[in-house]
């Protein structure tokens, strides 16, 4: 091997060693966030309220007095306690949070459906979809 070839190999080796590694792709499926609020209990409980109640219901609770809020939360806790033993388990709480999130999704789908079903026949034709989405004139 000649000196220029040796120098070239050595240079390429150093370049490969010093190069930045490629970004590692995350192969884990992460569940969506329960709220778009920052999760910092030292500042506020907005994240927890959104996760526990759902975004719309949390807005309603923000308008209540502490007494009204406590009364309503007591009623909700009774719904969460599925086995009626007076305690809310982690599994019961997880089930409730999933229920609250799904309820919001179903309500949003219903709202979207009504917005696209312009002739209110329970079906959405391509023409209705185009008109509702892109603003074409009927």
UniProtKB/TrEMBL annotation:
<keyword id="KW-0106">Calcium</keyword>
<keyword id="KW-0677">Repeat</keyword>
<feature type="domain" description="EF-hand">
    <location>
        <begin position="68"/>
        <end position="103"/>
    </location>
</feature>
<dbReference type="GO" id="GO:0042470">
    <property type="term" value="C:melanosome"/>
</dbReference>
<keyword id="KW-0732">Signal</keyword>
<dbReference type="GO" id="GO:0005794">
    <property type="term" value="C:Golgi apparatus"/>
</dbReference>
<keyword id="KW-0964">Secreted</keyword>
<comment type="similarity">
    <text>Belongs to the CREC family.</text>
</comment>
<keyword id="KW-0472">Membrane</keyword>
<keyword id="KW-0703">Sarcoplasmic reticulum</keyword>
<dbReference type="InterPro" id="IPR011992">
    <property type="entry name" value="EF-hand-dom_pair"/>
</dbReference>
<dbReference type="InterPro" id="IPR002048">
    <property type="entry name" value="EF_hand_dom"/>
</dbReference>
<dbReference type="GO" id="GO:0005789">
    <property type="term" value="C:endoplasmic reticulum membrane"/>
</dbReference>
<protein>
    <submittedName>
        <fullName>CALU protein</fullName>
    </submittedName>
</protein>
<dbReference type="GO" id="GO:0005576">
    <property type="term" value="C:extracellular region"/>
</dbReference>
<keyword id="KW-0333">Golgi apparatus</keyword>
<dbReference type="GO" id="GO:0033018">
    <property type="term" value="C:sarcoplasmic reticulum lumen"/>
</dbReference>
<feature type="signal peptide">
    <location>
        <begin position="1"/>
        <end position="18"/>
    </location>
</feature>
<keyword id="KW-0256">Endoplasmic reticulum</keyword>
<keyword id="KW-0479">Metal-binding</keyword>
<dbReference type="InterPro" id="IPR018247">
    <property type="entry name" value="EF_Hand_1_Ca_BS"/>
</dbReference>
<keyword id="KW-0325">Glycoprotein</keyword>
<dbReference type="Pfam" id="PF13202">
    <property type="entry name" value="EF-hand_5"/>
</dbReference>
<dbReference type="GO" id="GO:0005509">
    <property type="term" value="F:calcium ion binding"/>
</dbReference>
